[in-house]
Design brief:
Helices cover 71% and strands 0% of the residues. It has 387 residues and is mainly alpha-helical. The longest helix is centred in the N-terminal third of the chain and has 50 residues.
Length: 387
């Protein structure tokens, strides 16, 4: 058996302006006008309350999304401000619960409001047709090599326009340029701008880096807005600029905070790149210096006793022979061996016919080495005889 119609919603109806019997002494037209005015004012107040709540909920959602993004980034980078962000996030969750309760209260109030002549009927057959924007690009699953090839092709085609966008100063110029070149609104363009910022910081072009960094965050905020709304990024160009150019202080503060954080990350990455390049350069130079035995002459020189360092600095061969003869034979042999392996001492240098000075030094060093070897043999022979 089918259920009958539910007539309960007709139990609480606010009568229309002309359906009420009034007392003979009451001016009926005036009463009807007063009722109508009061009802309209109540409806306007209710609409205003719902509109204010909608704005409040929208701003809350934006703030919550911004704090969530910062919190995620802080957790990944180990930022020292993580506890403060977590506390702010917890406070927002409590605020969200209050907003939810307020929303339920508004729904209940609307449900209990009596129907009247303005709310009894609703448009059933009317419809609105909205033209669809460009189809949202699908997230294709590409290999790392395919992604790199796509990025390279995109940059080769659009490098000039990306750099033009990076140099704009006014929001209106940036907006119009992206409207005229919608293909630039994508992750590849944002990646190129980021790399460009790091390159500028490495080159110590700090002012230009700060300017391009601003345009990079503009691009990233457009892409983030598209993700939040699940829209094609090209459809979010005008909404972003409209919002950033209004008096929405909270949105501007979030933009500036992200800009400052981005500049800090660029400087950190640029410093790391410079340090890495310096290490590679120093390692290459060290390899070039290595002697025939694979030792670095700089490291060997620094490990020598001060009196031996002085001999090499002054190229004083007699003094070198004298000091070596005074050292313990094993210690002297240790230093000579390291000097030979590093190329600081060339035992057969006296055989070089084209460099007399090098030949004389090499001959003297060879004689010194032989003398030390003889002293070492004599010391060992003496120790054997004593035994």
């Amino acid at each position: 058996m089918s259920k009958g119609l539910n007539y309960s919603k007709w139990d609480h109806i606010e009568v229309s302006d002309d359906e009420d019997d009034t007392h003979p002494n009451i001016d009926t037209p005036s009463l009807f006008r007063w009722r109508h005015t009061a009802r309209v004012e109540r409806m306007e107040a209710a609409d205003k309350e719902k509109s204010e709540f909608s704005d409040e909920a929208s701003k809350f959602k934006e703030k919550l999304n911004a704090v969530e993004a910062k919190l995620k980034q802080a957790k990944e980078s180990g930022d020292a401000g993580l506890p403060d962000l977590q506390a702010e996030y917890n406070d927002l969750l409590e605020e969200g619960k209050k907003l939810k309760a307020k929303e339920e209260e508004l729904k209940k109030k609307e449900r209990l409001t009596p129907l009247n002549v303005d709310t009894l009927s609703k448009d059933k057959w009317g419809k609105t047709v909205i033209n669809k924007g460009p189809e949202k690009p699908r997230n294709e699953k590409l290999t790392d090599e395919e992604v790199a090839q796509r990025y390279k092709a995109f940059i080769e085609k659009n490098r000039e326009n990306i750099k033009k966008f990076g140099m704009f100063k006014k929001y209106d110029d940036s907006r119009q340029f992206l409207v005229d070149h919608p293909d630039l609104v994508c992750e590849d363009a944002a990646s190129y701008l980021t790399v460009w910022c790091i390159d500028l910081e490495v080159e110590e072009k700090h002012d230009l880096m700060n300017h391009v960094a601003h345009q990079t965050i503009v691009m990233q905020f457009i892409l983030e807005l598209a993700k939040q709304l699940d829209y094609d990024p090209r459809d979010c160009v005008r909404p972003f600029f409209s919002r950033i150019q209004t008096t929405d202080k909270q949105y501007k503060d979030a933009f500036n905070d992200e800009l400052d954080s981005f500049k800090g990350r660029v400087k950190t990455r640029a410093k790391a790149r410079v340090d890495e390049a310096m290490k590679e350069y120093e390692e290459e130079e060290r390899k070039k210096r290595l002697g025939p035995g694979g030792l670095d002459p700089v490291e060997v020189f620094e490990s020598l006793p001060p009196e031996l360092q002085k001999c090499f600095e002054e190229r004083n061969i007699p003094l070198l022979q004298e000091i070596l003869s005074k050292l313990d034979p094993k210690e002297a042999k240790y230093h000579i061996d390291r000097c030979v392996k590093s190329g600081m001492w060339v035992p057969d240098g006296h055989k070089e016919e084209n460099d007399d000075e090098a030949g004389s030094q090499g001959e003297a060093m060879a004689d010194g080495e032989e003398a030390i070897a003889e002293e070492g043999d004599a010391a060992e022979a003496g120790a054997t005889s004593a035994d």
